[in-house]
Write a structure and sequence with these properties.
α6 runs antiparallel to α14, α8 crosses α9 and α8 packs antiparallel against α17. By secondary structure, the chain is mainly α. The chain has 19 helices and 2 strands. A hairpin with a 5-residue loop joins β1 and β2. The chain is globular and about 60 Å long. The chain has a two-stranded antiparallel ribbon.
Length: 438
């Protein structure tokens, strides 16, 4: 088993240290220019996300519900722990590269969601189904690649979307509250299961109510910490910008690094956080009630904006301002501990609040990814035995909570890498259909 783990780790180290980062950043840049910088319409896109569609389609989700479902699957540990590891391994300048990845990644997210709505299918119950698998089948007339992507998505749902999230819950509850992993796993499975068994409407309704609230609550806490650390705010911005292009020995828990390492960790964490280029956001986008691909693509694009451009930046600024003001609190902590060290200065149980946020985000990720996995399962089985999938997913929430997951994490990274290739290929092969006009 150890030899298998080592082999997969070596593959991931190669793929995520260069080839995939260049592929995704190149894709982001290409479609940013191809679509004449659609990011400039972000304010209009935000307005569209809260504007009801004029042509509602039966049992499908509202545009805001699709956005909330996308954010449910992406918001969470990447914004909190991922930013911490980026700073610890790449230095403060990694925040800049993470932010740039979010800015440029919005164009790729727009493109994949546009094509997903353009080439989606309609089930017998009137609901829309889409994603890269349908783009390959309906747009490129290649069902084999569609099935391959669907299989990868299903496996990823049980990996990064299910077992790794439930394991994060048990680690947090065990360290912060001393809760037995079996009890935490059962509670996580029961809580998420109540929503999952209700299907797409239940998932959409819960995401609409919970995800914006969690995002706003975490954002407010970051702003409060930045107010508390206000004397270090401008120095933190200067440090991030100067370290991004001229890395050097840093303060606190962050190590000095080369420009390549700083950019690598910043870009990689940005890509992992918003998933632009992997294609999962396109699956949720296809369930929209609107039949205007550009309308939905702009709405889905805002998920990358909120996820990486806003929340990752705020998390990074909180970490760096704390490192400047309290370098002793960041010294000697592990890679994931910089955020925890910063939140210890939040009035009234800051670390407990952060733990609760991590647990809540993990629960919403479980729910959001259950939908993505279900759509892949429906594609592979032609909508048969959906109850079997739901039961298996809920059971795996508990299993993931009580098992060591080193191999699962590595396999998930490899699967994500495999998902990128067919998704990005479809974007280039079908780029003639893309436009940024609303």
């Amino acid at each position: 088993m150890q030899s298998i783990l080592t082999f997969i780790q070596s593959i991931n180290q190669f793929l995520w240290s260069g080839p995939l980062l260049f592929l995704l950043m190149g894709t982001h840049l290409y479609f940013t220019m191809k679509l004449h910088f659609p990011q400039k319409n972000i304010l209009k896109a935000i307005k569209l996300s809260v504007t009801p569609a004029s042509n509602k389609e039966g049992n499908n989700l509202s545009v805001f519900a699709t956005l909330s479902t996308t954010l449910a699957a992406t918001l969470g540990t990447g914004n909190i722990i991922g930013v911490s590891t980026a700073v610890a391994l790449g230095g403060p300048g990694a925040i800049f590269w993470c932010w740039i990845t979010g800015i440029l990644g919005m164009a790729t997210a727009y493109s994949e969601c546009f094509l997903s709505v353009r080439f989606r299918s309609r089930a017998k119950d009137g609901t829309y189904q889409g994603g890269p698998m349908y783009v390959w089948e309906n747009g490129l007339h290649n069902k084999s690649v569609g099935k391959f992507y669907g299989l990868l998505t299903l496996i990823a749902a049980f990996g990064v979307g299910c077992t790794t999230q439930s394991n994060s819950i048990t680690q947090t509850t065990s360290l912060s509250f001393g809760l037995n992993p079996h009890i935490a796993g059962f509670l996580a499975a029961f809580t998420a299961g109540l929503v999952i068994v209700g299907g797409i409407r239940s998932i959409g309704n819960v995401c609409v109510k919970i995800v914006p609230f969690l995002g706003i609550l975490y954002t407010i806490s970051c702003i409060l910490l930045l107010i508390i650390n206000r004397e270090a705010f401008l120095p933190a911005i200067r440090l991030i910008l100067t370290h991004a292009l001229a890395p050097r020995a840093a303060i606190g828990g962050a190590a000095g690094s080369s420009l390549i390492i700083t950019a690598r960790y910043g870009i990689a964490r940005g890509l992992f956080t918003n998933e632009a280029g992997i294609g999962t956001a396109a699956i949720a986008a296809a369930a929209s009630e609107t039949d205007n691909p550009a309308h939905q693509a702009y709405v889905s694009m805002t998920a990358v904006f909120w996820d990486t451009v806003v929340m990752c930046l705020l998390s990074g600024l909180v970490i760096v301002t704390n490192m400047i003001l309290h370098p002793e609190s960041a010294a000697g902590v592990n890679e994931a501990g910089l955020t925890d060290a910063a939140f210890s200065y939040l009035p009234l149980f800051g670390n407990v609040f952060l733990s609760i946020c991590l647990i809540a985000f993990a629960i919403t990720t479980l729910i959001g990814w259950s939908y993505l996995g279900e759509q892949a399962y429906r594609y592979l089985t032609q909508n048969k035995a959906i109850s079997f999938y739901k039961v298996a997913y809920i059971v795996m929430i508990y299993v993931g909570a009580v098992l060591p997951l080193n191999l699962v994490w590595e396999c998930t990274d490899l699967i994500n890498a495999c998902m990128i290739i067919p998704n990005v290929a479809a974007l280039f092969l079908l780029q003639k259909y893309l436009h940024s006009r609303i």
